[in-house]
C-alpha cells in the first residue's frame, strides 16, 4: 500500500514544499519558531525526510510537556531565516490536534497515512478561508 501524498485533497502535494519555501541545510532550521495564523505553535526539534516526504518535528512544549507533532512540508506557508521562523497557514489548535508524533511510529506508513488524512480533512474543511497557493 503506497502512502497517500495528499495530492488530491488539498489541491497541492502535502508532503512536498510549496514553491519558495524550500531551504538549504536542514540543521539550520532546528530551533526555528513555528507560528500559526493565530499564535506560536512551538519550535522545530528535527527535520525528517522519510520516503521523500519532508516534514518538521515540532515540539509544542507549553501545551503538553514533551508532545511533538509532525508538520508536513506542504503545510508550510513561508520560512523566514532572518527571524528564524516557519509560518503555517493553520491555527495553533489545528496543528495541536494532529496525531502526535512518536519516534517509534513516526516513520511508519500507517502513521503517515493517518497524518495525511488529518491534514487533507483539515484543508477540505477550511478550503474557502485558508486555501494555500498551488
Automatic annotation (TrEMBL):
The lineage of its organism: Bacteria, Bacillati, Actinomycetota, Actinomycetes, Propionibacteriales. It holds the Pfam family PRC. GO terms for biological process: photosynthesis, light reaction. One of its GO terms (cellular component) is plasma membrane light-harvesting complex. InterPro entries: Bac_photo_RC_H_C, PRC-brl_dom, PRC_barrel-like_sf. This is PRC-barrel domain-containing protein. It comes from Kribbella voronezhensis. Residues 27-91 form the PRC-barrel domain.
